[in-house]
Write a structure and sequence with these properties.
By secondary structure, this protein is of the alpha/beta class. The chain has 14 helices and twelve strands. It has two domains: 135 residues, Aspartate Aminotransferase, domain 1 (Alpha-Beta Complex), CATH 3.90.1150.10; 237 residues, Type I PLP-dependent aspartate aminotransferase-like (Major domain) (Aspartate Aminotransferase, domain 2, 3-Layer(aba) Sandwich), CATH 3.40.640. It is 42% helix and 14% strand. The longest helix is centred in the C-terminal third of the chain and has 23 residues.
């Protein structure tokens, strides 16, 4: 038998694989589905982005450079100035990434030092599993902090003891948060960044959903007055419907950006140049982003209407393309999800995002408006 990494062998099945299997079985039983399960925008990239990509195909040749096109770094820095009011040096504080997933996974390999006693990676749950898996493959020790409704879905920093703080190499946060839809105030980033500099760890902020908001634009870790030990990741996947393009960026502390620039040629993850050209077009336009927020807002209103009339709690849910629904009557999340699936409504059970997600389900606002209305009718009758 061929040898397999024990870390890989020990991982549970990626939860959305299980969800796909359940959906496939439901369709085989003749159930017509409205799929709120996976947060993959249906609309795709706007036409001007696709045109920019096609126009760039003629000039493609040679391997793309790890640091990316200077024009793309400049476009990202300009967008950060417009959106967050911050000035970034595009040559020292910005690096394009192949989406954000691969860069988030890889960061632990860049900053961990297990022999030197820096082996703890703090992650939050419910949450995206990639930071924890990246920590495991880098030989780190994940330390999980629950995101509790009573704390506004912010981690309790006081729950870490002094010994743990001194072993932390990397502390991951994700706001607006997937799956809870909660946002974090700038004061939270300020407090955590102070600890990062005091104890010498990296504050890593996954900000994939900063542009999907309804009440007001969320804060970014890039808005900190001192970005030492801080790095933020963003992506065009949700902002511009470019999930399949795999285009994002990391920005922040120049030393961390330099480390990413040194690491990335080894693993060959520089974005293709034609995708970078499309990304320049996307970061330079806000009209399509405003239209995206309007679409999600309409779908959100349809579902919130029926959920509120049924007196079901939807805590968090201030931003992102998700609603975080508290399961009624003490029912288990998996059971509630299975019951909805039998009536054609697909949601993600909260425990798919970690044990702290029990008691909730996540709805991704990706189906078209008419399908959302059809699902609302089902919920009206079923709940």
């Amino acid at each position: 038998m061929a040898p397999i990494s024990p870390i890989l062998a020990g991982l549970s099945t990626y939860p959305f694989v299980r969800l796909e299997e359940a959906k496939r079985a439901a369709r085989a039983r003749g159930i017509e589905l409205v799929d709120f399960g996976v947060g993959d925008p249906h609309e795709g990239a706007p036409a001007f982005v696709r045109e920019a990509l096609v126009a760039a195909l003629d000039g493609v040749g040679g391997y793309p450079l790890a640091q990316g096109l200077p024009e793309l770094r400049a476009a990202v820095a300009a967008w950060c100035r417009r959106r967050f009011g911050v000035d970034l040096d595009p040559d020292r504080e910005v690096i394009p990434t192949l989406g954000s997933k691969e860069a988030i996974f890889s960061l632990a390999q860049i900053v961990l030092d297990p022999p030197g006693g820096r082996d703890v990676v703090v992650v939050t749950e419910p949450g995206y599993p990639v930071p924890e898996r990246g920590a495991l493959f880098a030989g780190g020790r994940p330390h999980v902090l629950p995101l509790l409704e009573e704390n506004g879905f912010l981690p309790d920093l006081e729950s870490l003891d002094e010994h743990t703080w001194r072993r932390v190499a990397l502390f991951w946060v994700n706001y607006p948060n997937n799956p809870t839809g909660a946002t974090a105030p700038l004061a939270f980033y300020e407090e955590l960044a102070l600890r990062a500099r005091e104890y010498g760890f990296v504050l890593a902020s996954d900000e994939a959903y900063t542009e999907v908001w309804f009440d007001g634009p969320p804060a970014s870790a890039l808005q900190l007055a001192d970005r030492g030990n801080v790095i933020a990741f963003n992506t065009l996947s949700k902002r511009s419907g470019m999930t399949g393009y795999r285009s994002g960026f990391a920005a922040g502390d120049p030393a961390l950006v330099a480390a990413l620039r040194a690491y990335r040629p080894t693993v060959g993850t520089a974005p293709q140049e034609f995708v970078q050209r499309a990304a320049i077009a996307a970061w330079s336009d806000e009209g399509h982003v405003e239209a995206m927020r309007a679409r999600y807002g309409e779908r959100r209103a349809v579902l919130l209407d029926v959920l509120e009339r049924k007196r079901l709690r939807v805590p968090g849910s201030r931003a992102t393309l998700y609603l975080w629904l508290a399961v009624p009557n003490g029912e288990a999340s998996e059971d509630f999800s299975a019951r909805l699936l039998e009536h054609g409504v697909v949601v993600s059970p909260g425990p798919y995002f970690g044990a702290a997600g029990e008691g909730y389900v996540r709805l991704a606002l990706v189906p078209p408006l008419d399908d959302c209305r059809r699902a609302a009718d089902v919920l009206e009758e079923l709940l």
